[in-house]
Every structure is written in C-alpha cells, then in structure tokens.
Amino acid sequence: MIEIFRNMWRRKFRTFLTIFGIVIGIFAFTVMGSMALKLNKMIDGGKKYITGQITISPKGSSYGMSSGTLPIDTINKIAQIDGVDKVGAMVSMLVEDQNPDNASMNMGQPATIYATDFNSEFKNRNWETMDMREGKMVGAGSTDNEIAIGINIATDKKLHAGDTYKIHGREFRVVGVVNKTMTGPDDYVFMSITPAREMLIESNPFMESLFVQNRLKAEDVNSMAGVSWKDGYDSEKVATEIKDQFGKDVSVMSPVKMGELIDKASATMNAIILGSAMLALIVGLFSIVNTMVMSISERTKEIGIKKAIGASPRSIAFEYTLEAGIIGLVGGAIGMGLGVLAADIINNKMAAKGAEIFLIEPNFLIAVIVFSFVVGILAGIIPAIRASKLNVVDAVREL
Amino acid sequence: MKEKIIVKAKGLKKSYKMSKRNIVAALRGVDIEVKEGDFSAIIGPSGCGKSTLMHILGLLDRPDEGTLEIDGVDMSRLKEKKAYKIRSKKIGFIFQGFNLIPTLTALENVMLAGKYGGMRTKERKERAKKLLKLLGLQDRINHKPNELSGGQQQRVAIARALINDPALILADEPTGELDSKTSLEIMEILKKLNRKENKTFLIVTHNLDVAKVCKKIIRLKDGLNA
C-alpha cells in the first residue's frame, strides 16, 4: 500500500494531472447529481400530490395559474358524479406580483398562495397532513386572517409563528411554519379560500369590474379544484367521467396519466443531467487509463524484477489495479468535496430566495466515492492485466 | 551420504526467432548438474547462451527441448502460471544491476521477496532484518537504493535472494557493475554464505577473476557445453 502511494508520488505532476481529471469528472457528477436529486425530490413531492387527487382547472389554464375561474356551480355538479367522494375548491396565486421591469432568473418556484376551503371535507389521498416546525397548520376552525407558511418563506421573510405577514396589502397572522419538504410547500402560504378569492379579484381589474357589477360572485372565483374518489372506484374512470361531462369547460388531470407524464419528464431530465456528468467522468477515466499505461511501460523493469523474485501475475495485476483505484478514490474524494462545497455555497446564496437547487444526500455521496473507486479500478484493469502478462525475459533483458 | 542434486538439466535447447528467416539457436543441447552446496560458475564468451541458460534454470523462460529438474521436481512440463510459485520458494536471483525497487527501502526490498514467498509480515520483517544484519547493513535498513553505494545495493540484493531460503541462488554477473575492491567483497560474502550456510550458488560471469573464486566451472561455447 505504501509502495502505491510512493509510486504515485514518484511522478507527482502526472499523478496530479490524472487526479485533476477525475476531480473534474466527479465534481461535475456530484453537482449535477445533487441537482438531479433536488429536482427529483421536488418532482416526487409534486407527483405525490398530483396522484393523490383528480385535479380540475379552468380550460386553458396552467395548473391553477390563470385568469380563468372555475364556477362553484361546476364544482358542485362534479361532486354529484358517480364515484366522486369530495370536491375541494382552491385558489392559487402568487404572493408577490411579478415585476416584468425587474425580472430575475429564479431557479426555484415563487412564493405561492395555496388557499383551500376550510369547510370542505376534501382531502388529497396522498397528502393529508404536513409536519410543522412551528405552531399549527391552518384548516377547519382557523380564521380567515390566519396563515401557515412554508420554510423558505419563513426564512426569506424572517417570520415565525405569531408574526404578522402582509400579502397584497392585507395583514395575516402566521400561526404555523411547515417543516422543510424540499418541494412545493416550502414556498406556499396556506390560507382560507375566502381572503384568497378577494385578493385574486382585486389583483385582476377585469374580474374586479365584473365583481363590482355583480356579474361575478366571489365563490365562483376558484383557480382549481381537487377531486377525491370513493374507495373501490378507479380514479381513471372517475376522471374520464368528469372529462366526458365537463370536458368543454374544464381540464381534468387524472392521477395515473399525470404520474406517467411526470415520470417520463423526470427520466428525460435525469438522463440529460447525468449524461453530461458521465461525459466528464469518461474523460477522467481515460486519463487514468493513459497514466496507468504510461506508468506500466515506465516500470517494465520493476515488473520484471518482481516477477523474477516470485510475484504472481495476479499480485502484479492487483497492485496496478489498486493503484488506479486509489487514483480514482483520491480524485473522487477531492471532486466530491469540491462539489459539495460548491453546491453548499450556491444553496446558501439561493436559500434566501427560497431556491435551493441542490440536494446533498449522504447516500449519494457514499455512492459517488464508491463509484470513483470503481471507475479507477475499471480504468486500471486493462493496463494491469497487460502488466501481469509482461514477458519476464523481455522485462529482465531491459535490466 | 549421497549428495543432493539441486539442478539436473539434460539436452536443453532454446532458439529465438528474430525474423522469419533468422532463427538464433541460443542453446543447442546443454547438460548441467548442480549439487547442494556447489559454488559454480558458468563462463563463456558473449553470445554463448549463458543468459539464456540462466533464464531457463531460473524458470523465467522455458526450453524448446530437454529436461529440467530443480530440487527433485520436474520443471519440463511446468505451466507458466505455476512457475512463479517455484521461483519464489526455490530460486533466488542476484542481478548485475542490483535491480532493487527504487521506491522501497532496503528492508522493504528484502521483505517483498518474502511476501511473494508466502511469509507472514512479522516473520519476513524479522528475517529481512536478520539477513541485512548478517550482510553488515543494519544501519542502512531504512535507506532507499539511491542512498546506498553499489556494494551496499548488491548486498541488499543478496539478502533479498536469501529471504525465502531457496535451494538455488542464481547470480548473473553479480560484480558486473562494481569496482574490483567491492567485487572481491561481494564474492567473499557469497563464498562465506556457501561455506557457512551451505547455500548453492550458480554464478554466470565472463569475469575470470570471479570464476576463479568458484569451486566448479561450467564452460559454454556456441550454445553447447565446452
């Protein structure tokens, strides 16, 4: 083992360059992998939510963010469909209006109001409760000026349970802070649907004018609705039934189809992210192969001596494979360290905006280290086998 | 008491194909017998097949024809993959250019051969230290080869050849890179090991002064016993 390190040290500059190649590969792998983990976690959270209900939104809207509304009459009619258990109206809108003059690149999602009807008995089948860091969740029994907030908003605005938070000119009392979920709810403001409807109307001059003219009722202002199905019913059949009856007016997102769509999208994204990281790693791998081939041709004489004094081909192959593995391991450890550092620094900077883009998981880091060792070993195998097959007489003749 | 035969080779032939038409016959039927405790020299002019013979006796190469027994074991049909086991336990090598591993200390160089011979770490460390002390290198055990003189390096190489207590020690021009005074010292060491420890030496040399020290001389000429 000591000899391996001494051999690496013997050609310091070359070893450094080889390790550097691996460092870059593993750095890219760590950073991209952490990004993929974060995105996957977010997507999984979204998927869990989306597949826990049939989501209904006004035709032409993009997941609740629209100026279109879902009339209460439609919601009530949907509730009558065979297989539908409960329907819950929701309002979703941005906490702060986007200012197009001050647009900035935002990797995370913007702070969003997630308002539900506290009197509704509707519950998402996969997402019934939230872990609270402080206080309690809003729900049945909460007043209209009470809100619970996601951790990113709490951190960004320095809010705690008991504080007051002003949204669209209204003051709300924070009664709870939701624990970190690494997904959408980290950026949510949970509140009752009543003030949310009012704020949505106020934020839209067209809607406001209709409202003033009494042509729009507040209860008709719903950005979407969640539908749960009765036990024993197939969610897809219920979704199809809703679509058949209300397809003209509403978009219906069925749990299974949405789940499949999300899986497909995340698989493509993962392939792109990890594929680019793998490319960097392959370059690093070939730098090990190159170093080992050179190192072995330089050490032909040594291999000859070792064989002459009784080294088995296997022990020669093992020695050189291990050397390559250690180069991979050292490069991997440094690359991973730098990757974690970079991800951490960027996360800390972005955390204030609630837009952490990396998820650093110990299991992933262990896998990266093991992977870098394995990559080194793989790169070393062929040169090592060549070394073990060196003809002793030819090697000895070089003496 | 009957003397034990360490090496018994008959009709060893070996040729090398240099090109399609150029085949060089290095050995053309060499017989050799080395008994336990022998201190023999193989001498002959350049190109007479000395090195080829040494490679074959040291199981580094295989003869095209002929039989070879080392310490009573038939090596003629020995597979290449098994040769290293015999080599590590029964044969010790001393090379002209010392050929120590540059990254290892004197002690580690000696221990390495012990490792290949299947000795446990503690055992090989103790034995390596003992041998280096025997060869007067007790103060140099932690020195790397480049920190040692030629004579000292060759003494480390001798200790390395001895660690597995081999039946035969092959020395290829052991004084080839040493000045005459150091050459004499090294030859004295080998002789002493032969006399006191009954070690069997077969020394390949073209130096007649070295050969003169040996008890027995085997002459080769044009790939044959002369």
Order of helices and strands of chain A: HHEHEEEEHEEEHHEHEHHHHH
Report the principal-axis shape of chain A. elongated
How far apart are the termini of chain A?
25 Å
Distance between the termini of chain B: 30 Å
Q: Write down the overall geometry of chain B.
A: globular
Which fold name is given in CATH as the topology of chain B? Rossmann fold
Low-confidence stretches of chain A: none
Provide the helix percentage of chain B.
Answer: 25-40%
Give the uncertain stretches of chain B in residue-range form. Answer: none
The helix/strand class of chain A is alpha+beta
What is the helix content of chain A? 55-70%
Number of strands of chain B: 10
Oligomer: heterodimer
Q: How would you state the average pLDDT of chain A, rounded?
A: 85
Compute the number of helices of chain A: 12
Number of strands of chain A: 10
| CATH architecture assignment of chain B | 3-Layer(aba) Sandwich
What is the total number of structural domains of chain B?
1
- Alpha-carbon Rg of chain A, integer: 30 Å
Secondary-structure element order of chain B, N to C: EEEHEEHEHHHEHEHEE
- Counting helices, strands and paired strands, the structural category of chain B is alpha/beta
